[in-house]
Structure to design on (352 residues):
């Protein structure tokens, strides 16, 4: 409060910070513009009180053929179509086939995969249905 | 008399020569409100900014400690071939030119794909160019069993589809429009122009099966 009473530079800094917050909110939080093909997995996360997983398809696609995960690991071509749980991952299934400390980071690094905003529905982000004019952004086109 | 005509012509040239500039100058300030009224994005073009870093993309939680640790897409996409849609990366070209070398098999790092070299030409309705499906290209990243027989029966004509069903995530739409290049890149698939494009050619090819 003293900042406001003093006036001068302090209040201008506060005002600028407030304006910057507004600008960021308008640009960033309104519409999700994540990578095409990013998969949000939120079958259990919200209910468990942890952030949903954002799987970056593009990152994995640079390193692996589609076949490596969708055939060798049996991951189905459908967002939400694979009943992936932490227990299965710890047993070496799904993500756990590589995220085992040998090929990639281990399950203890919760925050590296569970990076999504809470409440984001399971989806293939930027998919065709979402991109149609009038669809309700990230919530639509859930599959 | 001729002098008078020449003078009139000269005046006319001077007038017509200068008048458009004068008109343009006069109308320049008036153009502003029209541009404002036409600012509606009638082509529904996506916003120009893409490939945002995770903390700014609206899906990742910027307050999560892990979000800042993740690689930003543009860091990885730098050397790759560009495209106008999807990730703004031409993944197929990047693979062909060796910019990326995705591992084929989880267990065997040196395993290489054995792709079937067979193009399937899919005849479509009207004057739209026919679809050429390359087994060779898809086989570089996919196993036969990824598509056959669940998504496509391995038999010509046995897989009816439409652009609408693709958009809803069936057939090619299982991948295209969700992770592989979007359906808006018509020419990437519809690449074989019809010999006699028109009603006669459409009647010959049938119902675009």
């Amino acid at each position: 409060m003293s900042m406001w009473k003093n006036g001068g530079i302090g209040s201008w800094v506060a005002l600028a910070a407030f304006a910057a917050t507004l600008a960021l909110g308008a640009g960033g939080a309104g519409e999700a513009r994540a990578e095409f093909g990013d998969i949000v997995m939120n079958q259990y996360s919200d209910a468990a009180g942890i952030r949903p997983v954002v799987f970056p398809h593009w990152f994995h696609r640079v390193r692996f053929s589609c076949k490596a995960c969708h055939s060798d690991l049996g991951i189905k071509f459908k967002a939400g179509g694979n009943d992936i749980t932490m227990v299965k991952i710890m047993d070496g299934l799904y993500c756990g086939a590589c995220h085992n400390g040998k090929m990639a980071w281990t399950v203890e690094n919760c925050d590296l995969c569970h990076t999504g905003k809470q409440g984001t529905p399971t989806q293939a982000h930027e998919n065709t249905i979402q991109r149609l004019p009038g669809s309700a952004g990230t919530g639509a086109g859930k599959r | 008399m001729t002098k008078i005509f020449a003078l009139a012509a000269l005046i006319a040239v001077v007038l017509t020569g200068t008048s458009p500039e004068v008109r343009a100058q006069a109308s320049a300030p008036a153009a502003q409100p029209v541009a404002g009224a036409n600012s509606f994005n009638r082509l529904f073009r996506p916003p120009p900014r893409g490939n945002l870093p995770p903390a700014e993309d609206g899906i990742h939680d910027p307050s999560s400690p892990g979000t800042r640790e993740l690689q930003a897409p543009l860091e990885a996409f730098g050397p790759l071939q560009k495209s106008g849609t999807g990730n703004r990366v031409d993944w197929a070209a990047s693979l062909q030119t060796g910019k990326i070398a995705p591992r084929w098999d989880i267990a065997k790092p040196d395993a290489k794909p054995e792709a079937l070299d067979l193009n399937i030409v899919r005849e479509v309705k009207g004057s739209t160019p026919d679809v050429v499906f390359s087994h060779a290209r898809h086989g570089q990243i996919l196993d036969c069993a990824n598509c056959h027989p669940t998504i496509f029966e391995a038999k010509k004509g046995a897989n009816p589809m439409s652009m609408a069903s693709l958009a809803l995530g069936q057939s090619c739409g299982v991948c295209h429009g969700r992770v592989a290049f979007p359906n808006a890149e018509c020419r990437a698939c519809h690449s074989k122009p019809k010999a006699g494009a028109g009603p006669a050619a459409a009647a010959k090819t049938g119902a675009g099966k």
Q: What stands out?
A: The beta strands of chain B are 119-122, 130-134, 190-192. The longest helix of chain B spans residues 2-27.
